[in-house]
Amino acid sequence: MSDATTLIRKALDAGIELQFVGGQLKVTGKRKAVECWASKLRENKAALIEALQPRAPSLDWREADRVYQLHHIGCATCVAAGRGYGLRCGTGTALWAAYTAAAP
Fold this sequence. Notes:
Blueprint: H1 3-13, E1 17-21, E2 24-28, H2 31-43, H3 45-52, H4 61-72, H5 76-82, H6 90-102
Antiparallel strand pairs: 1-2
């Protein structure tokens, strides 16, 4: 667990909620608690922002393949497309695109 994650948990225990909104760190909670924690949060602002930013989902190609295959076996349109007859359905097309983007 990173120092920022530990700090976020301790702040939550103290009644302070930290959020990354609109490119800024937002701090909410009882006034006295926020005042008490302000200097510590300010010192670690960059690390807190890094820890609170949403992560782009990383899709392993094996997982993408598994998801596509599970769809493919139950979809007559995608089975036909796999044999060279027509195009994949909308869902199959999206899953196939995710698989090809994740493939090594």
